[in-house]
Amino acid sequence: MHVHHGARRPGAAHVTLLTEGTYPHSHGGVSVWCDQLVQGMPDLDFDVIAVTGTGREPVVWELPAQVHQVRSVPMWGEPPEGRAPRGRALTRLTAAYERFLTALLDPCAEDQFPPALYLLARAAADGTLSPFLRGDRAIALLATVWNRPGLAVREARPTLHDAVTATALLEHALRPLAAPTPEHGVAHAVSGGVAVLPGLAALDRHGVPLLLTEHGVYLRERYLGYRTAPYRWPVKAVVLGFFRLLAEESYRRAALITPGNRYNRLWEEQGGADPKAIRTVYNGVDPAAFPPAGPEPGTPTLSWAGRVDPIKDLETLIRAFSLVRAEIPEARLRLFGGTPRGGEAYWERCAALAAELGHGDAVAFEGRVEDIKDAYAAGNVVMLSSISEGFPFTLIEAMSCGRATVSTDVGGVREAVGDTGLVVPPRDPERMAAAALELLRDGDRRRAMGEAARLRVIEQFTLRQTIDTFRSIYLELPYHTREFTNPSAPEREPGRRTAAGSLAG
Length: 505
Prior knowledge:
This protein is of the alpha/beta class. Helix content is 45%, strand content 12%. It has helices spanning 29-40, 87-105, 113-125, 129-133, 136-145, 160-173, 197-206, 218-227, 233-253, 262-270, 314-327, 344-356, 372-377, 393-400, 413-417, 429-440, 443-460, 463-485, 499-504; strands spanning 2-4, 14-20, 45-52, 67-74, 186-189, 210-212, 256-257, 301-305, 332-336, 363-367, 381-384, 404-408, 422-424. Helix 11 (314-327) packs parallel to helix 12 (344-356) and helix 14 packs across helix 17 (443-460). The chain is globular and about 75 Å long. The protein starts with a strand and ends with a helix.
């Protein structure tokens, strides 16, 4: 599905946002962040290349005039158009794909990943990659490669079924390479992983600078997700090998990386990113849009806001609430947020757990709320129980509303909270319950923390700071990339401040 909206303006700086499962087809923290950037820069032109599920997802955000085009790239809908290669083209693609698979499975051949990936990208642009990967030759290649002597995956005795499964997963993961790539401006990937693929292709083909922002650590979340995925180890070895090498290539090739917190930076540096090319840019909110929430509820209440998803670990929160209610029988837990398509089973599991623990009457699944501020006002304490986060919007929004918080120590949570809330280990209901009880029993401390939290947001995490930072990056990055990728560029005068210095600080 392609949406054309608004007209391009001569001379306006141009940004192509690269998204996956977020803006403009779904709600949630990253989508809010994208909308804030777009709305905050009416003088810039934006396109969006959005990796989606089926391609039939509706646009759920009201797009401003500066968004010129939205192009949906479905990973699980109809395959990209094209036909299988023949003759020399088939021979070249077969050789490239063999090098690609070898890089995924042989630690000694990982340097072959980048050149093989860009050859696959060109085949995708020609319409031949997806048909090739859906054919028998691609499956036979994998079955041959992972049975080579000396490879660890061979010890797991991979089967033909494993080869079929892994090849299908790779075919879907590589579909974004078939998207038309931006030819000018800046390509801004708002997550790692498959969303970056059109940006890497644009950099390789047209020299378009790649800006990478990771809110959560995409690779870490893939590791977490595949721990319980219903695949045998050979399949996981192929797919996780792809995501790991893709992350490393993204870190190496990005002109600038703007993690949402310092925790992400550690992953990026370990993945091969040049520390001088990393600049932490925190998420921000408008304190006027999230004013003090007002009086607390009369009944001791814990509130939570977000999407109902395993990464949010509502099961730990429900177990913690069970311990809270053993001490404060009148306590309530209110959960605000929608359930993504495909997540219904997790919602049912959480509801069943609440009932099983005997608290079905005290745990309310409120669904999406019209005004998110109501979710924060609904609790005496706002909870965050995630096992992975970047720099969570719900947390700084709740802080701006003057509510005390209990959060898990993941991603940039501790950087956001400082000493204005309590931070506990993830997947630890006992510690989470103890922290919630500590605040529920001490109204003076709770209110003092809430006031300090709002002040912290006003001083450090405002939306204006975020937008101003990215505006300067968008305007400077094309100059920065041209200067530092041109080997014939003249040497700079000693002491002259460069675009690289101003960007990567």
